[in-house]
Task: structure prediction
Amino acid sequence: MRQIDQVKFNKSGIFLSIVGFLLVLSLALFLPHIATAAGGLVVTPQLVELDNKSRSKVLTLANRGKGTETYRISIINYRMDEKGNLHRTETPSEDEGFANGLFRYAPRQITLKPGKPQTVRILYRRPQNLEEGEYRSHLLFQQIPEAQAVSSKTTSGSGLALEIKTIFGITIPVIVRHGQLQASGQLSNIQAAETKRGKGISLRIAREGSQSLRGDLVALAGDEEIGRLNNVAVYLSTPHRDIIMPLYPEKSADTAGREIKIEYRNRGDNSGPAIASGNVVLR
Result:
């Protein structure tokens, strides 16, 4: 979720606008099918993957709020660090490229009434002599506030007015792959950890190959699932990602001394071979 607070000061006819606080939270890293902004926007699916076999996608946008909202759609680029945080950048990492210029989308702006979904169409456009590789950019759906909207306003005795307006938005990744690409993963540094919810497991996902990884982390005590973290990605801008996976509080209370198996599975695949796996004994 991208949240921008606009702070405006007005005194003696002088108007100053400051764009103050910027927070980017990559919901696409954790939610398997739906990306949701606090402003009420819902986008499905939350990941777009394009290649020679899948050259177009359709996104569905819905407004779960109470009022009509307008969103501007644009392209931005991020790099991922080893903690999974996304940082806006204008320069791609050595092993990856940006996807802007490799796809078209329409419309560029959309007005959504509550309960009236609309669609955005995305089309892959591969230029000649495109080098093999994976290319990634992100679509930003940013709320356009009403010109006169005021969510909070305070005036001091000296006539200084403070107005705060929150703008919401979300991003979803668009990944373009060209050529014969492959990737493999390995789990390491697996150990017990504490989270705000209670017990957890910390680990590192190491990535090798020419494309990113994306999968579901599952913790198993025997055949019983005691923890899960879905849709965990490791992009090409980092060779590994450190994760803390919370365990289900009701199922992890009596796990001391037991061997726990961790599997990094392909998204939504509970029966096929895991991308990577490892074991840890909880103390």
Residues 183-281 form a domain with the Immunoglobulin-like fold (CATH 2.60.40.10). The first strand starts at residue 2 and ends at 11. The chain has two domains: 2-178, 183-281. Confidence is low (pLDDT under 50) at residues 1-34.
